[in-house]
Specification:
With 85 residues, the chain is mainly alpha-helical. It has a domain of 49 residues. Helices cover 87% and strands 0% of the residues. It is built from three helices and no strands. Helix 1 packs antiparallel against helix 2. The longest helix is centred in the last third of the chain and has 27 residues. It starts with 7 loop residues before the first helix and ends with a helix.
């Protein structure tokens, strides 16, 4: 039985997603942690599926997925910056 190649991109994405949720919890509380874990899941998964179903382009799907994660990180950083002011 041959196993598929290891996907380092997917592993990095999952680790960074979990780290973002943990950081969100530690700096902004439980709601932020839950929004960054469950809320982002509810946004990323349908968006990725829609992108792949419409285009079949894995590169565009990867860009969308990483873009959503980056946007969530920027929103968290902005929230923390504003709440400290």
């Amino acid at each position: 039985m041959k196993l598929p190649a290891f996907n380092l991109d997917a592993l990095a994405y999952c680790i960074l997603w979990a780290a973002l949720a943990i950081v969100g919890y530690s700096v902004a509380g439980l709601k932020a942690g839950l929004l960054l874990s469950v809320g982002l899941f509810l946004l990323v998964m349908p968006s990725s599926a829609f992108m792949l179903a419409k285009t079949g382009n894995f590169s565009a799907e990867r860009t969308l997925r990483w873009g959503l994660l980056a946007a969530a990180a920027l929103l968290l950083a902005s929230y923390v910056d504003v709440s400290e002011a």
